[in-house]
């Protein structure tokens, strides 16, 4: 069964933050490549993190390619061909983890925003000052390599503004590769300030989009986002908020009080959410609780 068919039948459990699982396992991610650095140095650690989520009840894991980009690895001296190998490896490693558990599992290849490469919190602001053509040129090579690696879906995630979403959708439109699109948001607006209603309109006419929603937002913002996404698009909704804490790009640390409660998932599902998980600071134990809540 493909992921789209599964979504038509029932809610599906996503994983939590890959970086969170890696940090819980003792890995230092204080690097501009973030978790993508381990594609270079310790792919087994990534496999183990994926496996922890699968064993916790996640049915979909998101690959370590969020911050893996051709320019980012070029800064470390890697060639285009060497980076392409690492991007394909991100899908392979997730598949390896899936093979170690029973039951149907899916792999989502992460396509992070341009701002992630900058490693300065820009994915929570957007408006990089780039043209749509420049954004398409940035995203296209990575999307092509990841798509060729054979994931079940591309996770176009943490997109802060409509302009970048439209650029990515311009790359995937007509490709036949399933995609979900999720915005980073605050309240009922993208992080760049556009109304979510306008942002979700961007997926109209793009048949490749199998779900649309938000991620790495406050859990309190999910209910309204689900309602808007469902009303505007009629598509399955994907939601995976962070813990409720805020990322400080200057100190490279999380501040605030955790507010992720698996009990809230019932309301999200009732509103139309079909892909449900967590993002930053949401680890395997919280996903375990979410999976239990969904099974009730």
Helix and strand topology:
Elements: H1 3-9, E1 12-13, H2 18-24, H3 37-41, H4 43-56, E2 60-62, H5 70-74, H6 80-98, E3 106-111, H7 114-118, H8 132-148, E4 153-159, H9 162-172, E5 179-183, E6 185-186, E7 189-190, H10 196-201, E8 209-215, H11 222-233, E9 237-240, E10 246-248, E11 253-255, H12 265-271, E12 273-276, H13 284-295
Parallel strand pairs: 1-12, 2-3, 3-4, 4-5, 5-8, 8-9, 9-12
Antiparallel strand pairs: 6-7, 10-11
Structure description:
With 296 residues, the chain is of the alpha/beta class. It has a single domain, classed as TIM Barrel (Alpha-Beta Barrel). The protein contains 13 helices and 12 strands. The chain has an 8-stranded parallel β-sheet. The chain has a two-stranded antiparallel sheet with strand order 6-7. Strands 10-11 form a two-stranded antiparallel ribbon. Helix 11 links the parallel strand 8 (209-215) and strand 9 (237-240). Helix 4 runs parallel beside helix 13 and helix 6 packs across helix 8 (132-148). The chain is globular. It starts with a helix and ends with a helix. 53% of the residues are buried. The model has no long low-confidence stretch (mean pLDDT 94).
- CATH 2nd-level architecture: Alpha-Beta Barrel
For the largest beta-sheet, the strand count, sense and barrel status come to: 8 strands, parallel
Straight-line N-to-C gap:
22 Å
| Number of E-state strands | 12
As for the CATH topology, it is TIM Barrel
Organism: Saccharothrix ecbatanensis
Cofactor: Zn(2+)
GO molecular function: S-adenosylmethionine-homocysteine S-methyltransferase activity; zinc ion binding
GO biological process, one term: S-methylmethionine cycle
């Amino acid at each position: 069964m493909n992921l789209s068919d599964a979504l038509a039948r029932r809610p599906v459990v996503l994983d939590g933050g890959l970086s969170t699982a890696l940090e819980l396992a003792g890995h230092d991610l204080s690097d501009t490549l973030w978790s993508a650095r381990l594609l270079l140095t310790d792919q087994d650690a990534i496999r183990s993190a994926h496996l922890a989520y699968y064993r916790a009840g996640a049915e979909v894991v998101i690959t370590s390619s969020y911050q893996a980009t051709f320019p980012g690895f070029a800064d470390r001296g890697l060639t285009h061909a060497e980076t392409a190998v690492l991007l394909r490896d991100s899908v392979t490693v997730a598949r390896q983890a899936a093979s170690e558990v029973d039951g149907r599992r899916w792999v989502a290849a992460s396509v992070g925003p341009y701002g992630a490469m900058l490693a300065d919190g820009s994915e929570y602001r957007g408006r990089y000052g780039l043209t749509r053509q420049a954004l398409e040129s940035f995203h296209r090579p990575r999307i092509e390599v990841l798509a060729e690696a054979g994931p079940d879906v591309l996770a176009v995630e943490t997109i802060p503004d409509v302009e970048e979403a439209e650029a990515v959708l311009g790359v995937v439109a007509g490709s036949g590769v399933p995609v979900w699109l999720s915005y980073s948001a605050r309240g009922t607006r993208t992080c760049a300030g556009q109304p979510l209603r306008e942002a979700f309109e961007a997926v109209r006419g793009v048949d490749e989009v199998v779900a649309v929603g938000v991620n790495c937002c406050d859990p309190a913002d999910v209910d309204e986002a689900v309602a808007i996404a469902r009303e505007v698009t009629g598509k399955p909704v994907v939601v995976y908020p962070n813990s409720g804490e805020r990322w400080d790009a200057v100190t490279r640390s999380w501040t605030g009080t955790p507010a992720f409660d698996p009990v809230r998932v019932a309301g999200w599902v009732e509103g139309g959410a079909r892909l449900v998980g967590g993002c930053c600071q949401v680890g395997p134990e919280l996903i375990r609780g979410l999976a239990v809540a969904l099974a009730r």
